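Kindly inspect both lines:
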Amino acid sequence: MILLLAGPAFIALCSGLMLGRVEPFATFFYHFAWYGLIFTFDQLIRRRQGRSLIATCGPGFLALLFWSAAAWYFFELVNLRLQNWYYVFVADNPLLSFLGTAVAFATVFPGIFWIDHYLALRGVAAQRRGRPLRFTAAGLRNLQIGGLVCLVLPLIWPTYFFPLVWLALVLITAPANCRRGIDDLLLQFERGEYGPFLRLLLAGLIAGFFWESLNFWARAKWIYTVPFFDEFKLFEMPLAGFLGFPPFAVECAVLYRALVWRGLAPAFGAYTAQKPQPSAPALKGVLFLLAALGGGLTHYYMERQTTTSVTPRLEALEALAPGVRSLLEMHQVRYLTDLEGWQGKDLWRQLEDELAPQQLAELRRASRLYLHQGIGAEYGNLLLRAGISSVEELGQLPAEAVLEKLDAIPHRRLPTLAQVRVWVRRAPDERNPF
């Protein structure tokens, strides 16, 4: 019972520290909460079947986390073209940023599979049967061609075909699994067993809800800019976007069965089919190395395109007068985010006594601008040079006008129009955190 309660207690503790904007819980809240959630489901599973999935995987659990991160880096690679989401306020240390990103991506597989396994133990959709399907060799080949089409069309016309990405790998990988005799999606359909498929869809939806809710409260997080669906959101996700999580769960399950079959990831639960002859250790090593290099290369380009801001350091902020900057440094403020939360309230009370009213007002105004929707130092400085010095001014302009002003200023890179629309749309709802 102590272990069963440990996960929820840990999540509750991290949530309280996050709300107080205490580091590292504010920035890395998603990481702390998700691993607490995985541990919680692991203990629920142990309570029902007598052994946890982490214990079943043993040291191989690390391989599961590795392939989870590698799989998501594939979608990050595709997103360099789609530009459906971007990241704000990631750690400003490159090594910490990479480790934090990889550790976050590693939650994808266990997040889905642990929820799915627990639902199976509860008997969810266990008896769902239907008409058996038949897949011929030509039909399997056509499915894979369709999968390639679903992958290529979004890369050519991302604005209109981006949803197809979440079907591509299922259609490419599931027929290959079927040919190998792996008890996967298509063989289950041939037997008329639809319960595992329906349960995976539900597990994906549940995992998606947790992903988006935990991301929403974290300081370092992603923000969506999805064409046609960006107006109405739950957390940071457009409402229609939640429809993508169920097929994504199926996609992950199909990929993981292929990994287990080759002996690259640990077998557990519904994922047990392996090659009669294990893959050579040298081949496994090459595949691990290629996945690691691919993830590292993708991360390199993510930092230059998908990551739009890091935690804003004082020395990077052009809006701070030298005297104000020196005073903040005297109070051991390294990042503008140090002015938020429990610690920030005490600092603001001290600053009220130490700064002139105009200086204090300018600091509040500049802080709100830099911190608004993860704008950060680079784009915040660009806004200031363009004559936009407050969130209120930002909210009074059309996004197109803001981007036109920014484009007239010398810059290293510009935000996208979709990003600026997020800033402008949410400016009227901005609450003064100071």
The chain has two domains: 58-305, 315-426. Residues 58-305 form one domain. The longest helix spans residues 281-305.
